[in-house]
Amino acid sequence: MTYKVAISFDRCKITSVTCGCGNKDIFYCAHVVALSLYRIRKPDQVKLRLPISETLFQMNRDQLQKFVQYLITAHHTEVLPTAQKLADEILSSNSEINQVHGAPDPTAGASIDDENCWHLDEEQVREQVKLFLSQGGYYGSGKQLNSMFAKVREMLRMRDSNGARMLTLITEQFMADPRLSLWRQQGTGITEKCRQLWDELGALWVCVVLNPHCKLEEKSCWLRQLRKWGEMDVCPLEDGNYGNELPNITNALTQSSGHNQDSLARPRRTVFTRAIEGCDLHWQDSHLQRIISSDFYVSPSYQREGESLLFNSQGQPLWLEHVPTACARVDALRSHGYPREALRLTVAIINTLRLQQQRQLEIYKHQKKGGNLVTADEEKAEVLNTFFASVFSGKTTCPLDSCPPGMVNSVKEQNGPPVIQEEAVRELLSHLDVHKSVGPDGIHPRVMRELADELVKPLSVIYQQSWLTGEVPDDWELANVTPIYKKELLQRGATTITNLEGWVGHPLNPIGCLFLTLTEACRLEEENCLEISDTGDSKPPVYQHVPVVTGSQDGDESYLSLALEVALMGMGQQRVMPEGLYAQDKVCRNEEQIIARLQDLELDPVLVQTLRKQCILLLEGGPFSGLGEVIHRESVPMHTFAKYLFSALLPHDADLAYKLALRAMRLPVLETTAPSGDVTHPHHLVSVVPSRYPRWFTLGHLESQQCELASTMLTAAKGDMLRLRTVLEAIQKNIHSSSLIFKLAQDAFKIATPADSNSDTTLLNVALELGLQVMRMTLSTLNWRRREMVRWLVTCATEVGVRALVSILQSWYSLFTPTEATSIVAATVMSHNTILRLSLDYPQREELASCARTLALQCAMKDPQNCALSALTLCEKDHIAFETAYQIVIDAASTGMTYTQLFTIARYMEHRGYPLRAFKLASLAMTHLNLAYNQDTHPAINDVLWACALSHSLGKNELAAIIPLVVKSVHCATVLSDILRRCTMTAPGLAGIPGRRNSGKLMSTDKAPLRQLLDATISAYINTTHSRLTHISPRHYGEFIEFLSKARETFLLAQDGHIQFAQFIDNLKQIYKGKKKLMLLVRERFG
């Protein structure tokens, strides 16, 4: 099949395409790609022609006429209407077409002043995005939409202007998604997949607005559009963990006493807020330009005032900016095709983080030791300055970018200083925090906010003059700083120092950005390292050490070691757990992603040295480190991170690996006890966030990670008694979930008992200790796995040895319920399989049996209802113990035991050859039974029949004793008649008990004790008949007649039974004569 394909080129870019295949995708079809490749690879096969205007100029009149007529003839249905219209306009002297000189020529190409960009079918982009959203892209994998986002990043990297255009089209369709209105109306949260897509959308817009070579007009246009989207009601809000408590993207992360602010006064932060704030950033800072323009930028020999803060002690440049904001600059440089500049800025950021980490460590050590008392004002100022400089992470707010920014190496020098716009000043004044205290000038921020319109003019002039002269008014350099003494918190092992805005899980992904920037510089080329395995999966990337290029850097440091270092610093940062399910889940997900990238690094001696150094700093980092000695109650746990560190360090420094992993086992949010000394001053542990009980939606996941860390340590410590004991103590102290401790115990047991080698006794003891702790934790709680846990513990104790079994039997009351102790523990210990498994001699078997019998008797005393039968079974072989258990049953029979339990024990006694004891227990059971007239299917009927049969077999005296109990307890006529029938069929006393004689005579119903039973049966039949006739329906007439037939059989057992039955029938006819049909049936059957 042949397709017509047309492609337009302009300065090496495809500006338009058409193809007859009807492609409906945003990507070029195969035919367009094929034609483009043909044009590139075989340029000599494509004939170049002059523009059509030049060709027409060479024709005379006849040739022009022939050309036009042939053209119309070839496409007369398509061209003829247009040709006729143009002919009419040309012939008209007053037409608009005759007012313009010349004519357009599409083959002549664009002018040099015309904008040229790659072809982008905007309508097709809209349709594709709308289609993906309508197909549930939010709920599916979202691969199509993520592919479009990747395409936008590719366009930005190639510096294609279509990147921002395409992102705008995508955003418009996202904002038009009807699900947003539905979710808002219903008050439900946006789905997780949807939030991930919106996060990526917001991050892309930050990259776009931070384009270092964009024009002022473009940034202004984007700012207006972003504000328009952000003001829409359906615009999704930013994650709860980076909401109103935090500063904007251009400010340092400073916290004040603004927690009491009214929530209504806080600005509304949407997914576009960071991009809007990013519009205030620019690239004109001279220090920043020198950083990104040269690898050899170092501290000058002569430093001007203030320049000392811009370099570290080695002369390396620092970039003191809010860390996520600085990382957003790095991401923007990478995304717009400036990898070298991004790498230089990354190194400056890492140098800054190093300096902050060092200063924080010095401050903590000083506070920990108590330090020397500082009294002089200058010394106080130095101490406070050191601290504030260590936590300072941003620059002063920059004015709106009012000049086209650019790169030093690749863009021309700036034409002039920026112009401070009054609108920008007014915007800053309108966002002043009115809850801040007054400064040294005594002017309250509320006054400046209310008088913004009057102050905007003079302030704009001052700002402009300050920029031109490079000077700042002296009064503006003053500030009131009030330090708060909190050293006693460190002495109690608690802290309120933590970061509200963590770098892991942040919407801008600062740590991931720095790590990728550094590792991309160290990655080997794909043709050298990328191989496909037999399974079809690509192998992990291969990295090499690339020395850091800088004028004062040691030659041993590489970008790869910096990547590892910054990942460890970011993940080891102590930070508060964010609010909201998605934000907390994002922290866990981002942490796992970074660790997965770290696992791709092959740890050589250089990286191991970096790893060891950073781990030591994290352990000594105090309240600024998540692995420090003191930790905030609501800080994000370090279990997943510590598991990676432990596995990586173990082959190289086992002591450090265990120290770090044991430190990370903490989970203070679950601790219920306050630190010592906190009773009198409970306000010291007030959180840095508003007081609340933390809602940790991912707590289950965090606890499972804590369990995995412990399991990893147990596996590694196999055979090392001291370390196993240390790990065991950490587990018992920090893990609060019984199911997780049970899992650890099972894992330890499995590792300690391999199938192909001998058991590890030390690890088995640890597993047993954990199992015992689980038993204690779940003893008084409901746990559906309790029986499984008990059985496993017995199995584990069996593997440990006979002393472990004796121990749990002797201390059963603190581990098991009486039912568990008798029915599971003691029964399993006394089983034949256990004896064979342990290969016990006679004294050991006797010791176990004695402990089991003692346990059984104790349980029977404590819970006779559930343990009496098990106690009797366990004490069968010891006469004294058996008699004791029987006496316990007798004592409890009158008060705490049910007839079902007594009947069960009575049957057991008969089975063991104690019929008289069985009769006694059956008699006691009958006193607890009450069988109504209509309970002819009661489960106790079989027990009653068995008890009567037992009494009958023992003799007349026993039968005479049981019948009054039966008459008193049983009121069901059919059951009584069944008992009566059985007693009259055989002679009593057939049990053959020694010392008793059997008369061999059948018992008469006219004499005791059967006479009493017969009277009771007849009375029961009479009462039951009247009861049934009260609410009888015609469909039950047949059953009632059969019931009367059985009643007649019982009546006839008496001497005057036929007379009594006749009177009974006559009474029925008189009383229920209204039931004519029924009485007719009675008359037909009984006369």
Produce a short descriptive summary.
The chain has 1087 residues and is mainly alpha-helical. It has a two-stranded antiparallel ribbon with strand order 1-2.
Structure notes:
The protein is mainly alpha-helical and 1087 residues long. It is built from 46 helices and 2 strands. Strands 1-2 form a two-stranded antiparallel ribbon. Helix 6 (143-157) runs antiparallel to helix 7 (162-175) and helix 13 packs antiparallel against helix 14. The chain is elongated.
Write the layout of secondary structure elements.
Blueprint: E1 5-9, E2 14-19, H1 30-41, H2 52-57, H3 61-74, H4 76-91, H5 122-134, H6 143-157, H7 162-175, H8 178-186, H9 192-209, H10 216-230, H11 273-278, H12 286-293, H13 323-335, H14 339-369, H15 377-391, H16 422-430, H17 445-450, H18 452-469, H19 487-491, H20 510-520, H21 526-529, H22 559-571, H23 581-599, H24 605-620, H25 639-649, H26 654-664, H27 699-716, H28 721-734, H29 738-752, H30 761-778, H31 786-800, H32 802-810, H33 818-829, H34 832-838, H35 842-862, H36 864-874, H37 879-893, H38 899-911, H39 915-927, H40 941-954, H41 956-969, H42 973-985, H43 1010-1030, H44 1037-1051, H45 1057-1071, H46 1076-1086
Antiparallel strand pairs: 1-2
Helix pairs in contact: 3-4, 5-7, 6-7, 6-9, 7-9, 12-14, 13-14, 13-20, 14-15, 16-18, 20-22, 22-24, 25-26, 25-27, 27-28, 27-29, 28-30, 29-30, 30-31, 31-32, 31-33, 32-35, 33-35, 33-36, 35-36, 35-37, 36-37, 36-38, 38-39, 39-40, 39-41, 40-41, 40-42, 41-43, 42-43, 43-44, 44-45
